[in-house]
């Protein structure tokens, strides 16, 4: 048995903002992927994955939802045959490792599943997102359902608001100097503690005001610029967003990267922002000159995502 592959995702813009119903833009990232496989000898990573899938099976079996039902008999039989999730997607890195797993389980075991080939109306997209939110909550405590949705559809997705999501056409890549890239913090980030910090900060009126008047304003502007190919305006807004995040989201930025973050803003060599919930994993970088950014970040691992 070898299932279809599901890709990692990158939330280019909208982290934390989408919790408060602002815009978000997520794109598939094909450099990392995962799929269901079966082995006769379960050991190492495959054994750990199989054990984790058993826990996920129990969680899904206990779900009492009218939204979705699963072929639990087949799911359990496959687990007993040695099924595991074979993935190159790094865990705790903000690129949707659990999302790809959720997408693969839905694809294989959901009854009356909504397929990628049918006409994806807004209602179907919202239903899928709701199902995936329910499923992925097993991993994060609370999930928007966006990561599995992106992985399942393998399309860029624009979140206009909680009730309005749509597939998005993003400009095709150019052979320019500019780039979006990943910067490896070389430490694991955990979503749940970061979201808890954010929710506690939201109790502060000043933080809420900043989120609405600055963070969301710049983040939404970045999305519009990116989708319309307004590169000059994009970098102006990304720089502003980077400054706001450094000032107000320090707990989500690994300590070792506070100076690196500030250096980018000061030199204009690159601008950094959170990739997912932060706290570790990848940091997302934007630069008008990727070679220059690489030299400036020569002590760190970078990985290209998109070229301008």
Q: What are the SSEs and their pairings?
A:
Layout: E1 6-13, E2 24-38, H1 44-62, H2 72-80, E3 83-87, H3 97-109, H4 122-140, H5 146-153, E4 157-161, E5 164-167, E6 179-184, H6 191-201, H7 205-228, H8 231-248, H9 258-267, E7 271-274, E8 282-287, H10 290-296, E9 302-307
Antiparallel strand pairs: 1-2, 2-3, 2-4, 4-5, 6-8, 6-9, 7-8
Walk me through the structure:
With 308 residues, the protein is an alpha+beta fold. It folds into 2 domains: 6-167, Ribosomal Protein S5, domain 2 (2-Layer Sandwich); 179-307, 2-Layer Sandwich (Alpha-Beta Plaits). It is 45% helix and 19% strand. The chain has 10 helices and 9 strands. It has helices spanning 44-62, 72-80, 97-109, 122-140, 146-153, 191-201, 205-228, 231-248, 258-267, 290-296; strands at 6-13, 24-38, 83-87, 157-161, 164-167, 179-184, 271-274, 282-287, 302-307. The strands form 2 sheets. Strands 1, 2, 3, 4 and 5 form a 5-stranded antiparallel beta sheet that branches. The chain has a 4-stranded antiparallel beta sheet with strand order 7-8-6-9. A hairpin with a 7-residue loop joins β7 (271-274) and β8 (282-287). The longest helix is centred in the last third of the chain and has 24 residues, at 205-228.
- Helix count, per DSSP? 10
Low-confidence stretches: none
Q: Would you tell me the structural class of the helices and strands?
A: alpha+beta
Number of strands: 9
On the 0 to 100 scale, the average pLDDT is 93
**Globular, elongated, flat, extended or rod-shaped: what is the shape?**
globular
Q: In what range is the share of β-strand residues?
A: 15-25%
Oligomer: single chain
- CATH topology (level 3) name of the largest domain: Ribosomal Protein S5, domain 2
Instruction: Return the domain count.
Output: 2
SSE topology string = EEHHEHHHEEEHHHHEEHE
Give the proportion of residues in helices: 40-55%
Radius of gyration: 19 Å
Q: Assign the CATH class of the largest domain.
A: Alpha Beta
**Distance between the amino and carboxyl termini:** 40 Å
User: What is the CATH architecture term of the largest domain?
Assistant: 2-Layer Sandwich
Largest sheet: 5 strands, antiparallel
